[in-house]
Sequence to fold (260 residues):
Amino acid sequence: MTEANIRDILNQVAQGNLSVAQGLKRLRHLPFADLGFAKVDLHRKLRRGIPEVVFGERKSAEQIAAIGRRVVESGENLIVTRLDPPKARVLARKLKSFEYRAEAQVGLIRVHSQPAIGHGTVMVLSAGTSDIPVAEEAAVCAEMFRNKVSRLYDVGVAGLHRLTDSLDQLAAASVLIVVAGMEGALPSVVAGLIDKPVVAVPTSIGYGVAMGGIAPLLGMLNACSGGVVVVNIDNGFGAAMAATLINRVGLDRSEADGGL
Fold:
C-alpha cells in the first residue's frame, strides 16, 4: 500500500466515488499484514520512504515465499537479502518474476520500475575482490531504492594508485559506500580525499586477527578522517539504506511516491 494508493482511495471517498465503508475495506491491511509467523510492515513506505526489506537468513523458503506474495500484493517491489542459492531455487518456482542476484545473495521481484531520484549518484567501492559480495548487496539494494549507482571495485590501500586514478569519479558522487575487510583502511582514505558523505562497511574478510570483521569495524570507527559513518559487519543493505536517506535529504517526499 503506497502513498499514491492511499491518496487515490481518499480522493475517491472525497469525490463520492467510494463509500467510507468501501474505503476502509481497501485500507484494511494497514499498518501490517499478520501472517501468523510474521507481521509484514506495509506502513513502512509511508513512514520512511522505503518499504520493508526481507532478511532471508534463517527463514524457510516457504516463509519467504508467503511474505513475498503479500509484499507483491500490496503493490511494492520485493527485496530479500542474505538469500542462499538453495532457497533462491525454491523461490524461483514459487514466485512469479523472481530474480536472483547470486553474487549479492539478493532476491528480487520488480512490481514496477521508476526513474532514479536523489541529489546524485551513490558510488559503491570495494577494497578487494573478496569484498565484492557485500558491495553488490549494497549496490543492488541502492538501485532498488531508486538511486543512480556506480561501482568501483578492487581499489584497496595495498595499491592506492588504483583509487587515485578515479578521483574525478569519486568527487562526482553524491554519497559513497566504501566496503573493506582486513584492517578496514579504505573508508578513511576516501573520506580524506573528497567532501562527500562516506558510509563505511566492514566485511568479515581477513586472516585470524581480523576476527571475522571486528578489526576493520574498529578501524573504521576510529577513522582519522572525519565524516565516516559506519554500519555493521557485512551489512550492505544497511549501507544502502543510509546512503539513500542521505541522497534524498531535502527532497519533496512526493518525488519518492509510488514505490521503490
Remarks:
- The two ends are 12 Å apart (CA to CA).
- DSSP finds eleven helices and eleven strands in the chain.
